[in-house]
Design brief:
- This is IraD/Gp25-like domain-containing protein.
- The structure is a single chain.
- This protein is an alpha+beta fold.
- The longest helix has 19 residues.
- Helix content is about 25%, strand content about 25%.
- The chain has 2 helices and 3 strands, in the order H-H-E-E-E.
Length: about 120
């Protein structure tokens, strides 16, 4: 990570300047979260940016939805973060009224493995 980056979510630090992430791992994690939770078409000048995870709230919780989500998320991560992260595992499953998304990735800059988990109850 070179240069100064903005923290996610955006905030003002104690010094009155915009806050920055603590380290590379925090910065990359925030990038992954932003990508997954942004719906395609939501950014004016980047209409294809986003994983669309939030829109799953309005989809039926089924095996088909889980497979579609897995495909969409894999494509988004590969397209937008391929120089930052290496996707090592992505699991999307539906259990009863809950959609579970488990993501494991390796931060290319440091080689460290990281994991994120999202859960939505319908």
């Amino acid at each position: 990570m070179t240069g100064r980056h903005l923290a996610f979510p955006f905030r003002i630090g104690q010094d009155g300047r915009t806050a920055a992430p603590a380290d590379v791992l925090a910065h990359v994690k925030s990038e992954v979260i932003q990508l997954l939770l942004t719906n395609p078409g939501e950014r004016a000048f980047m209409p294809t940016f986003g994983g669309g995870l939030r829109r799953l709230v309005f989809e039926a919780n089924s095996d088909i939805s889980a497979a579609l989500a897995k495909s969409t998320l894999t494509q988004a991560i590969t397209r937008w973060l391929d120089t930052r992260v290496e996707l090592t595992a992505l699991e999307v499953e539906n259990r009863d009224a809950t959609m579970l998304v488990g993501l494991q990735y390796r931060v290319i800059a440091t080689g460290e493995a990281q994991a994120l988990r999202f859960e939505h109850k319908v």
